[in-house]
Design goal:
The protein is built from two helices and no strands. By secondary structure, it is mainly α. The chain has one domain.
Length: 41
């Protein structure tokens, strides 16, 4: 849940997009390092 909150905040700050937790789950997974195949993309 911590990474979901961070992802929501990043989306608001950088993309000016307000999303719910489910909408930020993908970004949260990337931020947490759960998708190493996407690193650097």
């Amino acid at each position: 849940e911590e990474y979901i909150a961070i992802a929501i905040l990043r989306l608001v700050e950088m993309e000016k997009a307000v999303v719910e937790g489910a909408g930020a789950a993908g970004l949260a997974a990337i931020l947490q390092g759960l998708l190493p195949e996407l690193k650097g993309k």
